[in-house]
Structures are given as C-alpha cells and as structure tokens.
Amino acid sequence: MVMLRFGLGGELGRVLAEDRDRVLDVLTQIAREKTELHGGRVTSVLGSTVLAVFADGADPADIAERAVRTAATVRDSLSVPTGTLTPPQAAVRGLTVHAAVASGEARLPRRPCADSPSPWGGGRLVDTCRTMLDHVQAGEIHVCDETRRHGERAAAFRRACASAIAPWELHALHDEAADQPWGRADGGVHVSELELMQHTLLHTRQRSASHLITLIQGSGRARTRLLMEFQRRVEDSHRGHVRVLAGTVPPPRTGDPLAVPAEILAAYCGIEPDTSEAHATARLRATLDGLGPADAADLYAPLARLLSPRPTTVAAAGTGEVLRAWGKFLARAARKQPLVLIWDDLQHADDALLDVVERLTQTHARVPLLNVVGADSGLPDRRPGWATAHPRTVTLSLSPEAGDALDRLLESLLPPLRESEVA
Fold it and tell me: What does pLDDT average to over the chain?
C-alpha cells in the first residue's frame, strides 16, 4: 500500500483558493497514472492524500517493488534532482510530496457502483501508513520493515530518523530496476541526450579537446531539468576530477549582461557574494598565480573589472577586452583541471557574450573544456548559423515530452482567464 500526501505551502499563495482544487486534481491524476503504470490501483482520495494498493501478484517482492517504484515515480516526476545524499527538490516552490509504503493485508470497502466515488479505506494497514506519513519530510519516502525486506532486490534503503513504525527511508533505486516493463523513475529526463552529453565529456577529457553542445527547446522547464541532471551526474561520477560551473543568463534589462561570466569567475576563485572587493581581488590574484605565471599580469586587470560591483567599470574598459581575458582564463583553468560550463537561457545573452561562447571551442581547441548551452528558439533565430560548420560542436533539438507531469502541474498553477478579467 502507498499513501501519498501533497503539500501546498504558503509560497503558492498566489494561487486562488478556488484554483487549488484544480491543482489537487492534476496531482491526483498524476498519482493515478503512475500507480496504474506500475500495476496498482488508486482506491481512495481524501483532500491532498491519495491511497493506492497493489494486490495483483503472488510474489511479495514484486508487489513491494512496484509500490516503492510508484512512490518514487510520483515524487521524481514533480521534482528536480539535487544530489545522491538528499531527496529531490520540488520543482515548484511550495509544493511538497510525502510518501509512505507499508506491506500487509488491507480490507477496502467495495464501491456501490462503478461511477460512485472511491470510499476511504480503513483498518490497521491504512492506519499504519497514516502514522508513517506524519513523520515523512518533504521529498522522502518511508517504508515499513516488511516492505524494506521484500524490496531490497530493487532498491537501497537507509535508516530513517522517524518512528519505530517507519524505520526505513528509500535511498536509491537499483539500476537494474530500470529494465522492468514499468520503466524508470527518472522524472522525464531525456536519457539519450544525457548519454550523448556524458560521452562527449569523456571525449573532452581523453582527447584534451574542447566541445560545444547546444540544447534547443521552446519550453525551458524540461531543458533546465536536463541541464541540472547532467550537472548532478558529472559531479557524482567525476568528483574531484572535473570542475563544473553553471549559470542562467538573465533576460535583457533585468540584470547585468555579464552576470554569468562574473558568477563563473567568482565561483572558480571561491569568492562569495558578500565578499569585500579587496578580498575578492586578492582571491583573484591568488587563483591566477595558481594557474601559472604566464599572462597572469595581463589577465588580472580586466578580470578584476569583471568582478567589480560597479557596472560602469566594465563598460569603461570595454566588454570585448574583459570577455577575451575571461576566455583565456577558462582555457588556463581547463588545462589544470577539465572544465564543464553549463549555460541556461543563453538566448538572452548580448552579441558580445554569444560571440565568446560560440568561439570558445575554436579559439581554445586543445583544452579539456566542455561548453553546454541551453536556449530556446530565440537563439537560432538570432544566429541561424550558430555553431555550424565548426568541428566538435553539436546542436540538439529537444522534443517536448507528451503528458509530462511537471508541465501539467505548472500549467494548472496558471489560473484560467475569468470573465471579470476579459473586460
């Protein structure tokens, strides 16, 4: 048995009270679809709580596996990955997913007819799930001891800081479970694109050659999740051997056009946002010295202007000079340690930054630097020849995933146009 509870927190305050039912309807439908995909059945819905049972099959291990995977699939379809040691983070602020899985026998009342609403079940197993759920934090999946014993072939569990009734928490699903007919709990991530990106990173490291990957998709939600998942996988599998730096370009007139280069430089140098300018420049000088004496003096002045909190400093010095120095810095950093740059919303970048990003793989070809760019169709519209006819570059158009759970949820959060608003 799986019991799911969806929390709609204060951050969703902009959603009108009458619209919350619509959001809960979408969440319930997502839970129902994922449950049926794994061979289960939603028997009861009470407010934001959904109860599902898995009665088909004589193998307790198979039943436990399907129940655990259902809980993980529902959670992951509404989340973005964070790291291997923490549960996924909700993709929408204010939305939380809590799940409890318990094994045993349950007696559920029959519905009077097929069209009548599902009754809310009771009994010991339902009470057990409800008690377990009271101790489940956002993004966690707790299981009873019996479910843990039956489900060990498909998942890894760890001790939960809860109660004796729910001593175990789902840690990870085993890879071999991905081959089962009910699919993976991957939250809709584009698997083939991820494999290509990881393969390109291996080429970048092994051949010490820079590469550029561009991901184009009109809706940025799936693209952003793909970039975040790639970053997580690189950090997990290449820990200590590859440096990953990421940033999102702000829309025009909403931020500094050089905000992301400045953030990348600051992150590499270990400069926090509240660091004083004097300490920041000292960290920059130490970082440049650590990368080698060649050109360090020439790079210091323009890069210090990039880190300056005064925007006019860069304008006075010339954006081109600053960005050229920034590109040389990245090449030197990649020679010391393979480097992955991840950009999102690059369509917002100005022409000067686009030029530098596009040409990085050509001007610094013999360094292990992987440049991964995410953008919407505005980028190829502005630059029809973006990265074409260049070696070691590839552009992928991401197809929208039909019925994506997160997209449906986000759409439900947009209130429908009301008659009072039409006038």
Answer: 81
